[in-house]
């Protein structure tokens, strides 16, 4: 590792640690004030609401920020590897810090079924190391962060369930429809487009074999997780003659291929 790469890596992770501390403070001192009464019936449900609310904030900020970055730097849409953007760099540091904090929070509240989420977070954190140390592959990372646009509605869905909202209400059904639409657009089609771009540009001057294999593996893993999550959503929200849907703790893979 060159001195310049080491400095980039160090600066990126100092910012990431600061971001993690901000999300910790938000989780510890701010969000507990807003937990609805229906989610206060147990420590577990209260923690779940706070954790998902924190995730919603991350999804809204990074999803909108990623869209802005692609608008701000059009060249990044053409070259997902070499194009650099300071704004995109800051967005990744913020997101990386969130995943560091959320991994620790999830591990401290381990329960059956939590391995899937922890595994997803490990995949994301590994994926972040390349762009944050080399300042390349930022476009690929930003495409992954576009998935957070869908996560906004996915988290809203979970928060409404935790607050025991009426699942027959118009607001709940509208959110479900928008959730499904953005899921297909940002988690399936967008990720599929990025996978195709990576394959077609595997001879790019800045695309090393290692980076190509990592990107291909991450795309495959996240796509599989997205398909599984889509099946759960369809079974839970759109199956006819279904019973009252049950809460699947943090039923979001945050699927952000980084």
Kindly describe this structure:
With 258 residues, the chain is an all-alpha fold. 73% of the residues lie in helices and 0% in strands. The chain is globular and about 55 Å long. Residues 248-258 have low confidence and may be disordered.
Keywords:
about 260 residues, mainly alpha, about 75% helix, about 0% strand, globular, disordered C terminus
Shape: globular
Stretches where pLDDT is under 50 for at least 5 consecutive residues are: 248-258
Roughly how much helix do the residues carry, as a percent range? over 70%
Q: Would you list the SSEs in sequence order as H and E?
A: HHHHHHHHH
**Mean pLDDT metric:** 89
| Largest beta-sheet details | none
Set out the fold topology:
Blueprint: H1 3-30, H2 43-72, H3 75-78, H4 86-108, H5 115-134, H6 138-145, H7 147-162, H8 170-200, H9 209-237
What's a quick, concise take on this entry?
This protein has 258 residues and is mostly helical.
